[in-house]
Amino acid sequence: MEFASETEVSEAGKHVRSLSAALNQVLFGQEELIELVLTGILARGHILLEGLPGLGKTELVKGLSKTLRLGTKRVQFTPDLLPGDITGNPVLQEVDGRRSFVFQPGPLFTNIVLADEINRASPKTQSALLEAMQERRVTVLGETHDLPKPFFVLATQNPIELEGTYPLPEAQLDRFLFKLEVTRNDVATLERIVNHRELGTEPTVEAIMDQSTLQSTLDLVRRIFLPEVVGNYIARLVDATHPGQSAAARGIRYGASPRAALSLASAAKARALMNERTNASFEDVRFVAPAVLRHRIVLEYNARVEGLTNNDVVRSILEEVPAHSGATPKTMSTATPA
């Protein structure tokens, strides 16, 4: 495979910077969140946004679809939503004098699916997304239908209103490249929102990329060089999430899967392109690691009772595992004899 050139990366980086600037006019004061969302898109991943109502999660997704000129559909997940309501259903129609079932595509047949409050849908409906998210296709009554390219699922969930919700199973969570936490705004940002926004109105956003430019950028990300030492660092980070493999993993019951390692590599390459570099670095991996790993580890009950969170564990792993394999882990350094 031919690796990306500096000229190609520089040109693509300019488009991505314009995209980031436009989205920062949609959602004030969330620069890091927007950078991570764009990183996830460039890595061809699905994203789970977790945050309280009214923080702008839906507006961010709408703004993203407008700046990329991509088709988007919103699905409000509720307990009575059926799998066929999102995948589509065969409908009996009369064709040339004969009645036959004709497949009518559901809202999944678009480029960006906004799955609002995904944890309110039943497990049966949630599982209908598994094939779509992994294979980019759906199967209805034994017939397979390919989804449009590119295809992204950006799902939202509320972390506090848990009555009447169905927590996403681990297999479903593992399909999301990132789990991002949308935090509240500070006073300065709130003042800016009050002075520049009206309730019930959407911000005006101009298109930055067309579908062809986006596709070429996605292809370019795959050609970003991943040095062997960075690949080794990714492997050691994922291995350190398993019990017995690091001091930080003491409270972990189940660690991250190989898909997490692939996700780290893809996201690191995407961030390298965003910063106009032709190769991924240790710093790229460290930046995306919390978003990739926080939803892929399961803590022991005792650890949760003690107040330990997934973010705490990931932070400890990043502090413990050195970038270079020959270095001594910080928490395992040998004490000086008395």
From TrEMBL:
SMART domains: AAA. InterPro entries: AAA+_ATPase, ATPase_AAA-3, CbbQ/NirQ/NorQ/GpvN, ChlI/MoxR_AAA_lid, ClpA/B, P-loop_NTPase. Pfam families: AAA_3 (PF07726), AAA_lid_2 (PF17863). Residues 43-186 form the AAA+ ATPase domain. It comes from the Bacteria. PANTHER family: MAGNESIUM-CHELATASE SUBUNIT CHLD, MOXR FAMILY PROTEIN. This is ATPase. It comes from Haloferula helveola.
